[in-house]
């Protein structure tokens, strides 16, 4: 059980929090956990790590997709942005999947590195390591498949909703 002295110490320590204070700092810290972008719900580039992306390239990609959808008003723009973000997520999961399969000898191992393992028949420890690594890769592939399927379903739904939006008459159609 927590003593009264510990509670008071925790309260004093909480007053000295070192979290971000500025809007820029808060925005940057919000992206700290982004590693591969497969769960991203906003149009931000992956800032660092193996799957890091160029922010200008991502912005150009999204802007191009949105322009191709020809949104006529704010509502269509929001839905077009959703479609673009879902397409970006699909692109990212494809990259995640191919990197998991191929691997990269400078960074980590992929399935291709385990296909022909150099294991002597009596090296039980090495065989267990190889099995554990293959299991981890299989788990990653299963996760990618789930993310991909859910994203594809969400994209299909969003495209149908967008098509319905584009069929509606706008109140000020003469002005546009």
Describe the structure.
- The structure is a single chain.
- The protein has 6 helices and no strands.
- The termini are far apart.
- It is an all-alpha fold.
- The chain has one domain.
- The longest helix is centred in the C-terminal third of the chain and has 44 residues, at 124-167.
- The mean pLDDT is 78.
Portion of residues within helices: 55-70%
- Provide the number of structural domains: 1
**Helical segment tally?**
6
Strand content: under 5%
Q: In sequence order, what are the helices and strands, one letter per element?
A: HHHHHH
Give the N-terminus to C-terminus distance in angstroms.
67 Å
Q: How does the major sheet shape up?
A: none
Number of strands: 0
The backbone outline, from C-alpha atoms, is flat
Whole-number mean pLDDT? 78
Low-confidence stretches: none
Structural class: mainly alpha
What is the alpha-carbon Rg in Å? 23 Å
Helix/strand layout:
Elements: H1 4-14, H2 23-30, H3 55-69, H4 74-102, H5 111-114, H6 124-167
Helix pairs in contact: 3-4, 4-6
């Amino acid at each position: 059980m927590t003593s009264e002295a510990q509670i008071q110490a925790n309260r004093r320590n909480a007053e000295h929090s070192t979290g971000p204070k500025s809007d820029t700092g808060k925005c940057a810290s919000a992206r700290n956990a982004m590693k591969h972008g497969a769960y991203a719900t906003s149009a931000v580039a992956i800032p660092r790590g193996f799957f890091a992306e160029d922010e200008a390239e991502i912005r150009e990609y999204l802007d191009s997709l949105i322009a191709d959808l020809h949104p006529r008003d704010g509502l269509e723009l929001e839905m077009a942005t959703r479609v673009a973000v879902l397409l970006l997520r699909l692109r990212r999961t494809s990259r995640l999947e191919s990197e998991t399969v191929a691997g990269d000898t400078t960074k980590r191992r992929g399935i291709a590195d385990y296909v022909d393992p150099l294991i002597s028949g009596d090296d039980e420890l090495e065989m267990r390591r190889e099995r554990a690594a293959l299991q981890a890769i299989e788990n990653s592939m299963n996760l990618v498949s789930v993310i991909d399927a859910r994203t594809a379903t969400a994209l299909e739904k969003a495209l149908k909703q967008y098509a319905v939006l584009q069929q509606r008459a706008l109140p000020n159609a003469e002005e546009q």
